[in-house]
Amino acid sequence: MERIIAGRHLDVSDNTKTFINSELDKIENEYSKLTSARVVVDIQKNWHISEIIIHGKKITIEATAKSKIMHNSISGAVQKARKQLKRYLDRVQDHHIHTDRNAKIHM
């Protein structure tokens, strides 16, 4: 999965990039058909805002979170993205019971 980490009005430190990559690994383990992830971190007044946009096969997920602490806002956005991904996977999963029509029922 291609990962783009950017900072709006700030430079992203190596420690924060490592933390973002470890959080994105959790999402990538759940669904292997993801192609790219864009993470944008921003500081507005005293708030740290994180935006995550994830693209994959037939899916686009957007999640935003804000907190007073940068790592908390990143974790919050990742949790929201994972929740959306789980909801998507449950929706596309086939819940119907398929039976063999040619099989005879023995009593």
Detailed description of the structure:
The chain is an alpha+beta fold and 107 residues long. It has one domain (2-92): Double Stranded RNA Binding Domain. The chain contains two helices and four strands; from the N terminus they run βαβββα. It has a four-stranded mixed beta sheet with strand order 1-2-3-4, with helices on one face. Strand 3 and strand 4 form a beta hairpin. Helix 1 packs parallel to helix 2 (70-92). 15% of the residues are buried. The mean pLDDT is 89.
Number of domains: 1
Q: For the report, how would you describe the main beta sheet?
A: 4 strands, mixed
Question: Helix share of residues?
Answer: 25-40%
- Which runs of at least 5 residues are low in confidence (pLDDT < 50)? none
**CATH homologous superfamily identity:** Ribosome hibernation promotion factor-like
Strand content: 25-35%
How many DSSP H or I helices?
2
Number of strands: 4
* CATH architectural arrangement: 2-Layer Sandwich
Computed over alpha carbons, the radius of gyration is 19 Å
Please provide the ordered H/E string of secondary-structure elements.
Answer: EHEEEH
User: How confident overall, as mean pLDDT?
Assistant: 89
Q: What gross morphology would you assign?
A: elongated
CATH topology: Double Stranded RNA Binding Domain
* Strand ordering within the main sheet: 1-2-3-4
Q: What is the subunit arrangement here?
A: single chain
Name the structural class. Answer: alpha+beta
Question: What is the top-level CATH class?
Answer: Alpha Beta
Distance between the termini: 52 Å
